[in-house]
Write a structure and sequence with these properties.
Length: 229
């Protein structure tokens, strides 16, 4: 859940918020309110900072999408409004925090980081003999399930076996030959690109589902499951 999206109805004005988060070591993206509302049904796990005018904040259609995604996403409200009713409306919609303007840049960063840590602790499963955990990726061999940020990830049979193999050998460079011999035995000739194809597909799925790990390439050697930089 390390992706931060600033939802704003005035992108120019919200550049200051974006700068504050960058200065705090985060990687925010700006998104217009209209664009967010049009794609709200397809949102995956993310962290949102709602920085909009008081007029739009009071509209029910603005907060409604956040209420729907509050179980899988973090969202913060930035506002000049100190009215108790406005705060209650935001928290009722699932807001994790309500930050009044003007704010100290460090305060904004710390509030977001603290909430992220809280979520990570809640979602941090424990490894067992039947399961593997690496960053925000959880895999259960017994039930053959994979989760990222507690959200199920659909994989093919071979993608599951490949990910499980990488998890058991995390932070270790594995040659293509070793991967192919371990997972495919003699099904394909040694010069086959079967490992590259499945690794590419698995890497794409991890990226599209906000995994904190990626499958890196080591030219002329092979692949490694490592923390995303």
């Amino acid at each position: 859940m390390n992706k931060i999206i600033i939802v704003a109805d005035d992108l120019h004005q919200s550049k200051g918020v974006c700068y504050d988060l960058i200065k705090g070591g985060m990687e925010p993206e700006l998104c217009s309110l209209s664009e967010f509302l049009s794609h709200a049904d397809n949102i995956q796990s993310s962290t949102f900072v709602l920085d909009i005018t008081d007029q739009n904040l009071q509209k029910k259609e603005t907060l409604l999408p956040f209420k729907k995604i509050s179980e899988t996403c973090l969202f913060f409200v930035l506002s000049y409004v100190s009215d108790e009713c406005a705060k209650l409306e935001a928290f009722s919609a699932g807001a994790d925090d309500y930050i009044e303007k003007p704010y100290h840049p460090k305060e904004l960063t710390l509030r977001i980081r603290n909430q992220m840590k809280r979520i990570e602790k809640q979602q941090d499963p424990v490894s067992t003999k039947d399961s593997q955990v690496f960053l925000n990726i959880y895999i259960d061999e017994k039930t053959r399930t994979v989760k990222i940020n507690s959200k199920p990830l659909l994989l093919t049979k071979k993608e599951f076996e490949l990910l499980n193999f990488f998890l058991k050998n995390r932070n270790r460079v594995l040659s293509r030959e070793y991967i192919q011999e371990s997972l495919w035995k003699d099904e394909y000739p040694k010069q086959s690109r079967i490992v590259d194809v499945h690794t590419h597909n698995l890497r794409t799925k991890l990226k599209n589902n906000c995994a904190n790990a990626t499958i890196g390439s080591r030219r002329g050697i092979g692949y490694i499951l490592e923390k995303k930089k």
